[in-house]
Amino acid sequence: MAHAIWNGSINFGLVTIPVKLFTAVRENDLHFNMLHKKDNGRINFQRICSVDGKKVEWNDIVKGYELDKDEYIVVTDEDLKGVAPEATQSIDITEFVDLADINPILFDKPYYLEPEKKGRHAYALLRDSLAAAGKVGIAKVVIRTKEYLAALKPNGKALVLELMHYPDEIVDADDFNFPAANEKASAGEMKAAKMLIDTMSGDFKPASYRDRYREEVMAMIEARAKGKPTKAKAIPKAKPATEVVNLMDVLQQSLKESGSKRRAAAGNGKAAASNGKPAAKKRRAVAAAK
What we know:
By secondary structure, the chain is α+β, with helices and mostly antiparallel strands. Among the domains are: about 5-25 and about 85-170, Beta Barrel (Ku70, Chain: A, Domain 2); about 190-195 and about 250-290. Helices cover about 30% and strands about 25% of the residues. It contains five helices and nine strands, in the order ββββαββαβββααα. The chain has helices spanning about 75-85, 120-135, 185-200, 210-225, 245-290, and strands at about 5-10, 15-25, 65-70, 70-75, 90-100, 105-115, 135-145, 145-155, 160-165. The chain has a seven-stranded mixed barrel with strand order 1-2-6-9-8-7-5. Strands 3-4 form a two-stranded antiparallel sheet. β1 and β2 (about 15-25) form a beta hairpin. The chain is extended and about 65 Å long.
């Protein structure tokens, strides 16, 4: 059973809903240890002072903020406590906004909010009214010692608290050389591109996507552990960029290939369905006989 990392309440107007906060994302990153090539000994890193070259113990280390090159202001834990936000244990909603008005790049990390027994009805009311209105709550919340901007979003049966980046944390898109908005394209190119998008469209099924790199790395590690040989995979060459002069030809070819794949998939689906019909009929006949 997951453990709550925070207990508090959702506050909007005079309504208070007691909740628990749980992480909504499970990290599946692979972690490797650094070893000595000669004997597989673990590598330990030491804290070495850049001035005298000697090892430093943890209790002799302080925090410092670099004002200029090699010029630091030493900051103590007491200094930080003096400016730390008050741990209010509450998610204070300041306003409700349309979800469509928030740039998705601002969203960072999601958490589930589970209601306490006394707050279940108010929780459901807030969740369902947000879903019906297409709104999210913008809130401030303190987790541990940091204050976050967050969005309170309905997600199925749950309310999700999604921590957000502040606007000054986002790199300005104007720093990059992107094509102009609504760049000129021929009517034929636009029509072909829309048709290709249409033929490749479908319902998003997250379960059909897997972290294949992680699976292959784990399979390789298991094979190595059993003493089995492993083979290096050939790295495919990068495809050349599509030139403007043949863009229409490539779009048309893509349409043909996409249509062929769809028809093949539909044919396989029909075959599977027809294979299941006799069994279904047999079951109905048995049921009728009973």
